[in-house]
Amino acid sequence: MKSLLSVVFACVFPLSLMACSVESGEEVQDDSAELVSSSPATFETFVGGNGLTYFHLIANNGQVVLHSQGYKSARAAENGIKAVLANGVDDENFSIEIASTGEPYFNLVAQNNEIIATSETFASPSSARRAVASVVKSISKVISALPVPASKHVAFETSVGDDHKTYFRLRAANGEIVLSSQGYTTKAAAQKGI
Predict the structure, then answer these.
(1) Looking at 84-164, which runs of residues are DSSP E strands?
(2) How confident is the model over 38-64, as pLDDT tens digits?
(3) What is the pLDDT of residues 2-45, one digit of tens each?
(4) What 3-state class would DSSP assign to 12?
């Protein structure tokens, strides 16, 4: 069975992201910058000069949208990508921070408070907040586009729609969606609906 990482690398994702590059020092010029819509993006892993494995989420314009910490192995980096997919669908898992340069950026944080991935810097906090919303929506779309492995039981799934509401659906053992919910204003409300 192919690993999730293999599937992720093989897929082209529809992402709506505002990206800029830390390496080149570029940043979003102002808050009126448009978000890139329906841009294909991919995860890329590489081994750094220090021997650690890293991953980036790359937008179609070649800019790094999210970057990881260094991992001791490719398998650990794969788990980091899985953590992005698992935690990146909830805006409560993102924290906006201020870099030493005074520019805002955001971290994607796991339930154990470990940083999973970090964004590039932005011109303003409002640009960073818009990018977080875009990343959440985009990761939800990525997950819904991934093939569903066959399972022996039914499962509920949640996702955030374009209208910023949380939805749940019931997936049967054969992978078919047999029930879709109304939109809920919060994730907690959707969990109660489940």
Answers:
(1) 94-98, 104-109, 115-119, 155-160
(2) 445 677 899 999 999 999 887 666 777
(3) 344 443 443 433 333 333 333 333 333 333 333 444 445 677 89
(4) coil
Contacts 24+ apart (CB under 8 A), 65-71: 65/15, 65/17, 65/19, 65/41, 65/119, 65/120, 65/135, 66/108, 66/117, 66/118, 66/119, 66/135, 67/22, 67/117, 67/118, 68/116, 68/117, 68/118, 69/115
Distance CA 121, CA 98 (A): 9
HSE toward the beta carbon, residue 172, CA cutoff 13 A: 5
- Residue with structure tokens 């898992």? 93
Task: Compute φ and ψ for 129, nearest 5 degrees.
Answer: -65, -40
Q: Is the pTM here over 0.85, yes or no?
A: no
- How far the first Cα of the chain sits from its last, in Å, is 30
Classified as helix, coil or strand, 134 is helix
| Token pair listed for 133 | 């919303």
Report how far residue 91's alpha carbon sits from residue 57's, in angstroms, rounded to the nearest whole number.
18
